[in-house]
Design goal:
It is a single chain. The protein has 156 residues and is of the alpha+beta class. The protein folds into 2 domains: 101 residues, no CATH class; 41 residues, no CATH class. Strands 1-2-3 form a 3-stranded antiparallel beta sheet, with no helix packed on it. Strand 2 and strand 3 form a beta hairpin. The protein starts with a helix and ends with a strand.
């Protein structure tokens, strides 16, 4: 449970964005347990997740993550992020949260249909791969959107 002392440690770095008790309880079972046979885990995983979300929220570089006691050292946070990525932990968390939110809204846990639409979008000369449309004189890119209750735009 967050005590005033814990919140004081995060201070201005968290900007009030530290995980609440309910949010952490939701994510805690999805975090992989420590590997057997090694040293016991000493990293506070709640503070580690707060550090990860701080990097995502602020866009700061890993080395500019505020130092302990606000968050664990940046190499620790980065190492866990990579380990969770290779273990599929982030995808598991995302899937669990999406299905929970969909069921809470009275919808099926998984989408049953999707609509895909593409269009040609005018671009500048710089940028990734682009195609040529003989009917149009300007360089173009294809933008795709996939709809399933909400619109998401992806430029490829």
């Amino acid at each position: 449970m967050w005590t005033p002392e814990d919140r004081a440690l995060v201070g201005d770095y968290g900007s009030g964005q530290a995980l609440s008790d309910d949010q952490y309880r939701l994510l805690e079972p999805l975090i992989p347990s420590a590997k057997p046979g090694g040293r016991p885990r000493t990293t506070d995983l709640r503070r580690l997740l707060d550090g990860l979300f701080y990097v995502v929220r602020t866009g700061c570089q890993w080395r500019h993550l505020p130092p302990p006691p606000a968050f664990p050292p940046w190499p620790t946070v980065y190492g866990y992020m990579r380990a969770f990525l290779s273990a599929g932990t982030w995808e598991t968390m995302r899937h669990h949260l999406v299905t929970t939110l969909r069921e809470g809204a009275g919808r099926e846990p998984s989408p049953t249909a999707a609509i895909i639409d593409t269009q040609s979008v005018r671009t500048t000369e710089s940028g990734g791969p682009r195609g040529y449309d003989a009917a149009k004189s300007a360089p173009r890119r294809r933008a795709s959107s996939m709809e399933e209750g909400s619109i998401r735009r992806v430029v490829d």
